[in-house]
């Protein structure tokens, strides 16, 4: 890794941490600006750098640093209904970078990434709420808790990430 990679990696972790704190709860899943940060980083950074910084971010949170939403962290966060969304961000970043690196529509990539985030995040949320916490929620209730209220904001975040990346990309000079 170069000094530039380390610097941008640290800035990316900082952005993720700050974006995670810009949140409010809509049930068991907080609405944060974290998706926006993940999308921006995946659009701008080389895939290897995105994977490294996001891996470090997850590790920081799991060892107890308060980098997740509402200044939370620790290994117990694995049992949080929202942890599946954090895992899904990793695959979302790969999808976005794949589309970007092949000159394909990054707007389409952002929408596909959002679908993947919902699929993984909602599955994990249902497993925690129904399996671990024995809530007995049906599919419709899971959608109402972890998906439907978030769709408008997530579409706005995808569009903002797209626009922000168009503005910043020429300034960063990464070779993808």
From TrEMBL:
Organism field: Facklamia hominis CCUG 36813
Membership in a protein family: Belongs to the BioY family.
GO molecular function, one term: biotin transmembrane transporter activity
Cited InterPro entries: BioY
Keywords assigned by UniProt, alphabetized: Cell membrane, Membrane, Transmembrane, Transmembrane helix, Transport
Transmembrane segments: 6-24, 36-57, 77-99, 106-129
Membrane-protein topology: Multi-pass membrane protein
Subcellular location: Cell membrane
Gene Ontology cellular component list: plasma membrane
Entry superkingdom: Bacteria
Name this protein carries in UniProt: Biotin transporter
């Amino acid at each position: 890794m170069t000094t530039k990679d380390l610097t941008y990696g640290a800035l990316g972790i900082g952005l993720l941490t700050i974006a995670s704190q810009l949140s409010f709860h809509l049930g068991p899943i907080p609405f944060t600006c974290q998706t926006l940060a993940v999308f921006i980083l995946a659009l701008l950074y080389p895939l290897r750098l995105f994977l490294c910084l996001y891996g470090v971010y997850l590790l920081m949170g799991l060892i107890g640093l308060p980098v997740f939403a509402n200044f939370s962290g620790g290994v117990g966060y694995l049992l949080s209904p929202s942890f599946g969304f954090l895992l899904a961000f990793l695959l979302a970043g790969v999808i976005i970078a794949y589309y970007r690196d092949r000159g394909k529509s990054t707007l389409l990539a952002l929408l596909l990434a959002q679908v993947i985030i919902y699929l993984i995040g909602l599955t994990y949320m249902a497993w925690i709420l129904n399996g671990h916490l024995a809530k007995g929620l049906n599919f419709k209730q899971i959608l109402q808790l972890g998906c439907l209220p978030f769709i408008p904001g997530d579409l706005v975040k995808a569009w903002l990430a797209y626009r922000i990346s168009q503005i910043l990309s020429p300034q960063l000079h990464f070779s993808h």
